[in-house]
TrEMBL record:
Listed name of the protein: Nuclear transport factor 2 family protein
Residue span(s) of domain SnoaL-like: 12-109
Superkingdom of the source species: Bacteria
Database matches in InterPro entries: NTF2-like_dom_sf, SnoaL-like
Source organism: Streptomyces crystallinus
Length: 117
């Protein structure tokens, strides 16, 4: 059996705006795909490796907003979770993630997110 995924670090990283902790959950060669209103399914934003993923995490978790891990399910080498966020002006974001793991580290991560209009 592989190494267990650290769900507590996921929660702590998200809710404490700790991009460094979140980055530590990814494999060196991980891929992160983001689908939203601007990067639709046929042309998602795709980041490869910790370097590119780090820039996105620093941006998102460096913003003045709250982040909350709502649900997290781990089954074998798959993790699914929802994250709710809110900007100070009341605009909300909901993100749903599905991740594949190898030896307890994220190797593939797809995020689908929606904002208040």
């Amino acid at each position: 059996m592989g190494t267990a995924f650290d769900t507590e670090s996921l929660r702590r990283g998200i809710e404490s705006h700790d991009a460094k902790t979140l980055l530590s959950l990814y494999a060196d060669d991980a891929e992160l795909r983001v689908v939203d209103r601007n990067t639709q399914p046929s042309h998602p934003m795709v980041m490869h490796g910790q370097g590119e993923i780090s820039k996105m995490l620093d941006d998102v978790y460096g913003r003045d907003m709250t982040h909350k891990l709502e649900q997290c399910v781990v089954q074998g080498d798959s993790v699914a979770y929802t994250e709710s966020c809110e900007y100070p002006d009341g605009v909300r974001v909901l993100a749903s993630s599905m991740m594949s793991l190898k030896e307890g580290k994220i190797v593939e991560h797809t995020v689908v997110q929606a904002w208040d209009e």
